[in-house]
Specification:
It is found in: Membrane. It comes from Neurospora intermedia. It holds the Pfam family Sugar_tr. Keywords: Membrane, Sugar transport, Transmembrane, Transmembrane helix, Transport. This protein has a three-stranded antiparallel β-sheet. A two-stranded antiparallel sheet has the order 1-2. The chain is globular, with a radius of gyration of 24 Å. It starts with a helix and ends in a 9-residue tail after the last strand. It is 69% helix and 3% strand.
């Protein structure tokens, strides 16, 4: 059978694979197995996706704590000129919120070296222990230094939670359901934020330290649940393959997949060939490998920029300081408003989760979400500038904040994390995704650290006018997504590897037909570059052409 015939055959979802053609695990093959067939894998991914609950819970809690009288009496100072009679200095506010993010930045930066020696599950267990220790410190201390230490340690835990849980999901989830599982990752983040806000709303009326100790006690729950559940879940088969432990990887893959033994062997073969094409094993990789090869360098830049666009939309001041922001701006009931906004975010992500498997185009949703965020921020700033302090302005700002959250949670955040995790090479996922996450956390730290200067009544006191600064960044990010971010919806990791190796420009990824290793035309590797080119195709309407006819442009 010719290469062209092979491509046509394997692209047809309704044609069974002939016995003489290896069954490469493509999106077409995966579509024959529904959610029920993949229940064990999806249950494992759901358990691991609970890790960012801690991250969301922290943001939901800490924003409310900084507006609680009980908390401010311990860590703040009297301020008769503001609502409630107590306030906190901008410098303390900066450190309380940003030290957690700084810790997450540092731990994310160490993901590459850490993943060389420790598995995905082992690191999540370590993060759970660190999370519990940090919370004990925060609950026991009445010293601002102790609170700073607890915040920093909690950030270290959250950095490992966010990166290693995401890596596990990206490596284990079938291509068809990868977007769904990553969107559930965002669901747990938002659910954590909602629960934190709801608990704050009920406890802020309590007098004394109990008002903030009760919410902090929630942080103990999920690390224990996740740690116990991981005993029933196998390690990532791709990580085991990168460590050269193929027998264990095969057993893990059989647990995660409903496939026949022959199909499991083909997926193992695809992973082996993908790793062989990029280098022997992860043990031979280093941080500099992300930049030495032009293909890896491109993938590193795309992963970093793809994940960082959520920082460019500047959600951090709405998430980390939402309650405080509403309170100091005199907008309605601050705790209730923050709960409403975070609940809207949960609804937006749940709706997106229902759509992502069938309609989850990364580029379209990211661009649409960024434009929506830009418009909402600009109008918020304009409304407050024209008519500050009135009831109608407050109502308008809450409504615009709801629109902003719909764009950010329903589109930007979900697809930024998906893009950041899908695009790294298979030999360097820990290094590349760790770098992308670290830079994303650094951007979040920078915005949480500087936001109090703009919104705090004792500093610049801009309030909602802070939106003026972030409107241009949304525009720039949307333009970058349009010109440079590839569309990889529904692709296996091996197919993504193949498209990057073909040096496709971003606009050609969506219609590219993969054959050969990881694609529909067989499971074999490539003897040389000419063999690789002879089995790569791009689909233009009804026409299939050789990949060497595609202009090789690094985007």
């Amino acid at each position: 059978m010719s290469s062209k015939d092979t491509a046509s055959t394997m692209a047809d979802k309704d044609v069974e694979h002939p016995a003489d053609i290896p069954v490469a695990i493509t999106a077409e093959v995966e579509e024959k197995y529904g959610i029920k067939a993949h229940w064990k894998c999806l249950a494992a991914c759901t358990l691991v996706s609970m890790c960012p609950f801690q991250y969301g819970l922290d943001f939901g809690l800490i924003g409310g704590l900084q507006a609680m009288i009980g908390f401010l009496k311990v860590f703040g100072h009297p301020a008769p000129h503001v609502a409630g009679g107590w306030n906190i200095s901008p410098s303390r506010q900066q450190l309380i919120s940003s030290l957690m993010t700084l810790g997450a930045f540092l731990s994310s930066s160490l993901v590459g070296p850490t993943a060389t020696f420790f598995s995905r599950r082992q690191t999540i267990w370590a993060a759970s222990l660190l999370c519990i220790v940090s919370n004990v410190i925060m609950m026991a201390t009445t010293s601002i230094g102790g609170l700073y230490a607890g915040r920093f340690l909690l950030g270290l835990a959250n950095g490992f939670y966010m990166t290693f849980s995401q890596l596990y999901i990206q490596e284990v989830a079938p291509a068809r359901y990868r977007g769904l599982m990553i969107s559930s990752f965002q669901v747990w983040t938002s659910v954590g934020t909602v629960i934190g806000g709801v608990v704050d709303n009920f406890t802020e009326k309590i007098d004394g330290r109990d008002s903030y100790l009760i919410p902090l006690g929630l942080i103990f729950v999920f690390p224990v649940v996740i740690s116990l559940g991981l005993f029933a879940v196998p390690e990532s088969p791709r990580w085991l393959m990168m460590q050269g432990r193929e027998d264990q990887a095969r057993r893990s893959l059989r647990w995660h997949r409903p496939y026949t033994d022959r199909m499991v062997e083909e997926e193992i073969k695809d992973i082996r060939l993908a790793l062989a094409a990029e280098g022997e094993t992860v043990k031979g990789a280093s941080v500099w490998d992300m930049f030495r090869d032009p293909v890896d360098r491109r993938r590193t830049v795309l992963a970093v920029c793809g994940l960082t666009v959520q920082g460019a939309s500047e959600a951090m001041y709405m998430i980390a300081y939402g309650t405080y922001f509403f309170k100091m701006a005199g907008i309605g009931k601050p705790f209730e408003n923050h709960v409403i906004l975070t609940s809207i975010g949960v609804v937006a992500i749940l709706v997106n989760s229902a759509m992502v498997t069938h309609f989850g185009r990364r580029r379209i949703f990211l661009i649409s979400g960024l434009i929506l965020c830009r418009v909402a921020q600009l109008l918020t700033a304009v409304v407050y500038t024209v008519n500050p302090g009135t009831k109608s302005t407050g109502q308008a700002i809450v409504g615009l904040a709801a629109i902003y959250i719909l764009g950010y949670k329903g589109m930007v955040a979900t697809y930024a994390w998906i893009s950041g995790g899908e695009l790294p090479s298979q030999r360097l996922p820990s290094y590349t995704f760790g770098l992308a996450t670290a830079i994303g956390f650094f951007a979040a730290w920078l915005t949480t650290f500087t936001a109090p200067y703009f919104i705090n009544s004792e500093s610049m006191n801009w309030g909602p006018k802070y939106g003026y600064i972030w409107t241009p960044s949304c525009w720039i990010s949307a333009l970058w997504v349009y010109f440079y971010l590839p569309e990889v919806k529904g692709r296996t990791l091996e197919e993504i590897d193949q498209m990057f190796e073909a040096r496709l420009p971003a606009r050609k990824f969506r219609k590219y037909v993969c054959v050969g290793r990881g694609g529909g035309g067989g499971g074999g590797g490539f003897a040389n570059e000419s063999d690789r080119n002879s089995v790569n195709w791009e689909k233009k309407g009804d026409e299939v052409v050789h990949a060497e006819e595609v202009k090789r442009v690094s985007c």
